[in-house]
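Chain particulars:
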Amino acid sequence: MFRKLFTIVIVLCFSMPFILFALDDAHFIQDDDYFVSDAPLKQGYIWVHLAKMIQPAKPETKNEAQFMKVGSGEELWTKYYWKTRVAQINECKIGTTVICFNDNIDNDVYKAPEDKDSARNSLWFMAKITDMSDLYKGFITVSGGYKVDKENVRIIIK
C-alpha cells in the first residue's frame, strides 16, 4: 500500500510542472493567450496584441472582457478578442481572417517568430487572405499586399 501511494506521489510531482504551466505551441502561444484589439478588422489589416484575460465578458461590462497585454502589462477592456491556433495550410482560403507575426521579415516575407521572447513581446497583425497562388513558393498574400510565410499563419478559433 505504501509503495503504491509513494509511486502516485512521485508521478504527480513530476507531472506538476506540465499541469501548472501552459505549454507553448509552434509560435510560442499558450492555451490561455488571446489576441486583442481596440477595433474590429474592417479592411486592410489591424494590429493585435497578445494578452491574458483578467475578467471575462458579461452583460454588466457591456460584453467586454478585461485583458492585460503580455508585452507591456497594460490593461484594457475590449469586445474584440480572439483565441487562435497555428493554421494548417489546407484550412486557408481566400477571405479567411488570419493573425500573423510582424517582426521577422526575410525578403519581404513575414516569417514566424524565432523565439519565445520576440513572439510574446512583439507585434502581430490581423488580415484576410487575398491570394494563395504563391503557396508553392511557401507564402500566401494577405490584405495590404503583405506576403506571409505559410508557417506564420494563425487561424481564429470560434
Summary: Residues 23-157 form one domain. The CA atoms of residues 25 and 81 lie 19 Å apart.
